[in-house]
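Support reply, case 0932

Customer input (verbatim):
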Amino acid sequence: MVAFNKELFLGVLIGLIAYISLYIGKGIQKYAIEGFKDEKTIKSKHSGIWIFGTLLTALFVFIQLIPLTVFHTPMNLIAPLEGVGLVSLLFFSFFVLKESISKTEILSVVLIITGTILINLATKDPVELEHTDFNLNSFLIALAILLFLSIPLVIFAFRKPSNFIGIMLGFNAGCFMAFQTLSKRIMDIGELALIFTFIMFAFATITLAITQFAFTMARANVVVPSFATASIILTIILGIFVIDEIIVSIQIAGICCIVSGIIVMNLFQKNSITEKETEKGS
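Our regenerated output:
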């Protein structure tokens, strides 16, 4: 029987709070924007709601720091919790935005929750990150590859914007989100904490900018899943190669469940939008 670990429990719990804050914030922003559209004017009520949603999404940056630096929680436990954030957004949409939940979306919830449980079945005691755990060469190589792919994509997006490019930008933003999470984990190393604080905020700014750029070309319900998928997968990969995190088979199975759940949720939403647009056009 696995002994109860208070630090691990608190780390995962606060990680959940961070992602729920992020995605509920997005849901509140969506609620406010729908209010602007319906009334065709900017009212203080909707502006206040939008600001509150934005504050919740901004708080994520600081809340996520706590499990990664204070409780030394491995990234391969924190990053997959993003799937639970998406589930919280789904239920927010159901109860607040009055959007229906289909059997397909229920399946996606089951997959995401199952994956999260599987990942947490094979956990180890949290350990403070040390300088010897950090592989600078791997970090620089991974970052160089990301920049090499990102710069042409952004330039092309300015010249020839399209729905597909918007989805690719969402994936790209998720990759920068992975580096943001990695930077927070590296801040656990005392002598690197200051420099990676600035690096983390740089990645957070880039993530936000590219995400908003992606929203100008593609709907949020296709940008967000591509963002989340890239964020989860790349965070796990970076954890293995940059800070020597270990992942076991059951956790890989859990990640596959979560990513599958996100994809299933995405496929349904695309079909739903097509049906709604068809109804409007007829």
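We compared this against your earlier run and they match. Two observations from our side: Residues 75 and 150 are 23 Å apart (CA to CA). The mean pLDDT is 87. Please reopen the case if you see a mismatch on your end.
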